[in-house]
Amino acid sequence: MTLKIPYTLTLCILLLSLILACKKESRSPYISPTFNYDTLPPITHTGANTFGCYVNGELWVAQVPLGTVTYHDIIAQLKESDSEGYFFIECNNIDPQNQISDWISFSLNTELTENTFCNSDQVFAQYKDTNGNWCKNGYFDCDSCCVTITNLDTVENIVSGLFEFVVNPDSLNLNNKVRITDGRFDVRYFPF
Q1: I need a surface site. Which of 34, 42, 119, 134 has the fewest CB within 10 A?
Q2: Are strands 134-136 and 190-191 parallel, antiparallel or unpaired?
Q3: Are 118 and 93 a contacting pair, CB within 8 Å?
């Protein structure tokens, strides 16, 4: 004897099993919903598209809300050459709820390899705070400025590294410094 199950009952059982199998996932409104923006990103070498540091002791992680079409969270470019090199990275942190945004960028004018260490003579760093104030290291000496490339993959276009620097919004008042420390990035770059 064959048991026949009505079509609607079969459909209800299937729908119920799908509902029970699905788990509600909490999603952040930012680009990478699985990343915790309350901590520094881990130090990785996979092209995870992460950038974070402390700005005067406060956590700063690059992030741009979904649907924000006029900004990017991180952009990186690397010129590959036998005799010279150039690396540029710019990162945004946008908070539309409080209507603030700030960004950090730095560039290196040297040929890059894995374990390249760049000191203050080779690094130009900028920070634009939420009030629109520019802080730079390009026009005066800074007491700390370095970037270390920890991974460079020119096949997969991945560059990772560590950084720290001091920038200043006013070259006449060297006491007004912005300290950027414990920085790390792991990005896919655009070759040019």
Answers
A1: 34
A2: unpaired
A3: no
Residue burial 86-96, b: 16+ Cβ < 10 Å; e: rest = bbbbbbbbbee
Tell me the β-bridge partners of 108.
87, 123
Give pLDDT, residue 23.
39
Per-residue confidence band for 64, with pLDDT thresholds at 50, 70 and 90: confident
When pLDDT is averaged across residues 22-36 and rounded to a whole number, the result is 44
Kindly report, residue by residue over 111-164, the tens digit of the pLDDT.
887 788 887 777 888 888 888 888 887 545 555 678 999 999 989 999 999 999
CA distance 113 to 110: 9
pLDDT tens for each residue of 79-116:
876 556 788 999 888 877 766 788 899 888 888 877 88
Return the residue matching tokens 């060297």: 174
Separation between Cα atoms, residue 151 and residue 137, nearest integer Å: 25
